[in-house]
Design brief:
The chain has 733 residues and is an alpha+beta fold. The protein is built from 14 helices and 27 strands. The longest helix has 21 residues. The radius of gyration is 27 Å and the shape is globular. The structure holds ligand 9MR.
Length: 733
């Protein structure tokens, strides 16, 4: 057995603390026989993979071709963990693949408390991680090393495993680079150009804009005091006066130089295409072609080819229905393989709204349908609409016309996992009023947009929308359960009055019929202020209705008031943005930033951009443009939240198949992928381990395990797509 620490292959080392605080219990070892001294007990291994001690380490022959990391494992149960205690996990390991080192529940549902993926080397090395235990569930805990998932057979060896409780906390300090924060992806020559300086100083400083070495503009910073969303003392810098263009600009202030950026009228052209191209690689049910998406080719997912159980003939959960549906196609929701009608609905709506309100310019996306005479945006959205239509309960069945809330795996799968290799049974979950109204709203909207290109589809959509709306009226309180979260997310929503308003609005705008106008006018949402801290998301859709009622021509009585309400909503977000030294139009109560905050920031910009469409006032256009600065690097973490944009950008988003950081043969997310962004509630153990105590903007980490701050989803990219298309359409500002 090795007795010395080998050279570390990857180390996460806690800065040494000067002394262990008195309140901490003495450090104590939890693992028994961590050195495998002559015997394997009490370690287990997954049958039939026996542990072999003959080499001096604990080794096993990992077969090739298993689906999940946990299909092949070595572990030890019976550990007692305590919430809030800091632990240090250390081990030696070798091999030619990846080991998922995890601490978690030792029985079903196997909740994970901590995990890291160690990239192994043949010579081996020592790995060390420090983490804080989250809420510990019933039963005992285990430490396990899960090494399944390799296409090729390989040999995994383990030794000197130690899990020590009561170690000093490992403070996490993100590397935020220079304190001059800019939009790293680019400004428009005639648009607003602003930056933020983080400094202790409270008096104005000089700033200089340079291109290469040449100073091309200068001025004084404006002290702004302490920014609540970051806790930082900051100044703002306005260099809008400069209208030159080019690459390699930097901004210097307070003795520091920003990351480089461009000033270019076409700075958003590529982004607006990439943000939309995101959807092609989220497609389920079809092969992703290498010629259309280099680096992302993969076989069709969930098309009834083993080990997939397929989406072609999907049963309901036991007791829910006794028919089966073909629900192939659609987009995978996020980093999981689930398909959820409510989130599909808001995503499809927002992309269609982008098309309908003219925020988007016709662009080729290089998707299989390109060149078929239909705008590529509509072709892409159709991929989801066809799936949503297939989720509707067929005529003749109980609850006909209602729509199944979601379809996903019976059990949670792990990372990494290609869609076509997911072995879990797929199931339809109960119908919900919310999903039914999502179909009613988007199919009605589709009926008015696709008619020019495909009349039968438009007619079929409208019929489905009408049927769905009537079914929802007859079943107004079928709420998706907030407990139905095994194998997929819940997307539960206790309040569906806003979905009723939205569906009625879309049906009215498409048909002009009195029955739907009556529903719109009678809805309490019609007169309410629907522009809250975040204008809209998958569970709050009243603002979606309002935006369309304001912008799509109709004879709705009181339409001028509807338009005014959108402008007033925009005024509120502009005021929030103006007061914010990072120009963020989002200031939630208690500074508590929500899951997917980046999309909320962007959706508030959508309201401002819509006000520009409605009024033509340049202040709204400029505010929408300036809002992108935050997303693209002018923020407390100095990170662009869009993959591939900006010198430092999010690229380790939580995903089963863009899992490059833990599976080197897989790609990172495609360029143009938005990360969820700061989430004050830190709803995953990895974020809790690193970020506990964070102030709003700091509640984010670009790590694949942080699903509550760093996932990617179809609804979030819809927000990015809308705003970047808007900015791209502004002719250089
Ligand atoms: O985006 C969703 C967020 O608003 C919710 O607070 C969260 C918890 O219910 O779920 C998020 O949605 C996830 C979904 O449930 C499953 N696929 C990934 C989604 C993004 O994280």
């Amino acid at each position: 057995m090795i007795r010395h620490l080998l050279l570390a292959a990857a180390l996460v080392v806690a800065p040494a603390s000067p002394s262990t605080p008195a309140f901490l219990a003495a450090e104590s070892e939890l693992v028994v026989n961590g050195a495998f001294d002559g015997t394997v007990a009490p370690w287990y291994s997954s049958p039939p993979n026996a542990i072999d001690l003959s080499s001096g380490h604990a080794c096993l022959a990992a077969p090739g071709g298993t689906a999940n990391r946990w299909d092949v494992s070595i572990g030890q149960s019976g550990l007692g963990l305590v919430e809030g205690t800091w632990y240090r996990l250390r081990f030696f390991a070798s091999g030619t693949y990846v080991a998922r080192a995890m601490v978690g529940q030792s029985a079903s549902p196997y909740t994970t408390y901590f995990e890291e993926n160690a990239l192994l080397t043949e010579g081996g090395g020592t790995f060390e991680y420090t983490f804080r235990a989250p809420r510990i569930l019933d039963g005992d805990s285990q430490v396990a090393f899960q090494v399944g998932g390799s296409p090729e057979p390989w040999r995994f060896c383990l030794d000197d495993v130690s899990l020590v409780a009561g170690v000093p906390p490992a403070p996490y300090a993100p590397d935020t680079g220079p304190p001059v924060r800019v939009n790293q992806a680019g400004y428009l020559p005639y648009g607003p150009k602003n930056a933020t300086l983080v400094t202790e100083s409270t008096t104005p400083a000089t700033w200089e804009l340079r291109r290469g070495r040449a100073i091309v503009a200068n001025g004084r910073t404006k002290p702004r005091g302490v920014d609540v969303s970051s806790g930082q003392n900051v100044h703002s810098i306005d260099f809008s006066r400069f209208q030159g263009r080019g690459t390699g600009f930097t901004l210097t202030a307070g003795g520091f130089t920003s990351r480089p950026f461009t000033i270019d009228p076409s700075a958003y052209d590529r982004l607006s295409t990439d943000a939309l191209k995101f959807y092609y690689t989220q497609r389920s049910g079809v092969e992703i072609r290498a010629d259309l998406r280099p680096g992302y080719a993969r076989p069709a997912g969930h098309v009834d080819v083993p080990p997939n159980q397929g989406d072609g003939n999907v049963p309901c959960q036991p007791g829910v229905c006794d028919y089966r549906l073909d629900v192939t196609g659609g987009w995978y929701d996020a980093g999981d393989h689930g398909k959820y009608v409510v989130n599909g609905g808001i995503s499809a709506w927002q992309l269609m709204n982008q098309y309908e309100t003219g925020a988007s310019r016709a662009r080729s996306l290089a998707i299989p349908e390109s060149g078929d005479g239909v705008p590529d945006l509509l072709d892409e959205v159709r991929w989801e609409l066809d799936f949503m239509l297939a989720m509707q309960v067929p005529a003749g069945q109980p609850l006909a016309g209602m729509v199944h809330h979601k379809i996903h795996d019976r059990n949670w799968t792990g990372l990494p996992l290609w869609p076509h290799l997911d072995p879990e049974l797929r199931e339809l979950h109960p119908v919900s009023t919310a999903a039914t109204l999502n179909l009613a709203a988007t199919a009605a909207q589709a009926a008015r947009l696709y008619g020019r290109f495909d009349r039968p589809f438009a007619a079929r959509s409208l019929a489905a929308a009408r049927t769905a709306f009537a079914a929802a009226v007859a079943n107004p309180d079928r709420l998706a359960s907030d407990q139905d979260g095994v194998g997929g997310g819940t997307y539960s929503d206790a309040q569906v009055g806003d979905e009723f308003y939205w569906a009625a609005a879309e049906l009215y705008l498409t048909t002009g019929e009195q029955q739907y106008a009556d529903r719109v006018l009678a809805s309490p949402y019609h007169t309410a202020d629907v522009f809250g801290p975040g204008a809209f998301d998958w569970g709050n859709t009243a603002a979606a209705a309002r935006l369309d009622l304001a912008q799509v021509p109709s004879r709705l009585p009181g339409r001028a008031r509807v338009v005014r309400s959108v402008v007033q909503g925009a005024d509120k977000y502009v005021a929030t943005q103006k007061a914010h030294p990072y120009a963020v139009p989002y200031a939630p109560p208690n500074n508590s930033w929500d899951w997917g905050s980046n999309s909320l920031v962007l959706n508030n910009l959508v309201v401002i951009g819509s006000a520009y469409h409605l009024t033509g006032r340049p202040a709204y256009r400029d505010a929408t443009i300036e809002g992108m600065d935050y997303i693209l690097g002018r923020n407390a973490l100095n990170i662009s939240y869009v993959t591939g944009y900006g010198q430092v950008n999010a690229h380790n988003q939580h995903s089963r198949w863009y899992a490059h950081s833990i599976e080197p043969t897989m790609p990172n997310p495609p360029v143009g992928t938005l990360a969820g962004g700061p989430n004050s509630s830190l709803q995953d153990p990895y974020a809790q381990s690193k970020l506990t105590g964070c102030v709003a903007q700091f509640c984010y980490i670009d790590h694949i395990q942080s699903w509550s701050t760093n996932e990617l989803t179809i609804n979030w990219n819809a927000s990015l797509s809308w705003v970047s298309a808007f900015v791209a359409a502004q002719n250089g500002g």
